[in-house]
Write a structure and sequence with these properties.
The chain is α/β, with parallel strands linked by helices and 193 residues long. Helices cover 31% and strands 30% of the residues. The protein contains 5 helices and 10 strands. A hairpin with a 2-residue loop joins strand 2 and strand 3. The model has no long low-confidence stretch (mean pLDDT 88).
Length: 193
Amino acid sequence: MRILVTYAVQGEFTELKFPGLIGEEEVQIGYLRTGVGKVKSAFYLTEAINHAQPDLVVNAGTAGTVSHRVGDIFVCRHFIDRDMQKLTDLGMEYEIDSAGLLAEKGYCLHWQGEGICNTGDTFLMELLDVQGDVVDMEAYAQAMVCRAKKVPFISVKYVTDIIGQNSVKHWEDKLADARRGLGEFFERLGGAV
């Protein structure tokens, strides 16, 4: 089994601990730093999928929130593009749910902490009417690429900042906590996909 782990910036890099075998399959884990934003993320992930042909893509990273606490972790299978959401009157798609393909393959079914990830090309610094539990700048684009390539996708987000409360500074200060928290989350899974 080939797992591709994506993250936006080096400060978010978290090494996943999976045992050498899952069931009877050997596990190979690759890592991809996508850069910040939907365009870079989609481009680099498409290239990586074409080259590595992973069985599963796991996005592990940080996010802001409006209504939760710093340190919360959300497992996201539902994604909203807040930029395209503004164009729903024109019939633009702005939501993706990756749960179906994950369930079909039997991947990540026991991963707890369900949440909705809202993606946009801006770092939100003020309270807005935002749908979802967490906000980021890459996950929707990655979910879209994976859906097009028929590769199961899941995103695990560590809340580093509360939108409207000095978000950029809090995000920078919380990167080490995020790496530690995400590492512990994946260790608790016991290496099971």
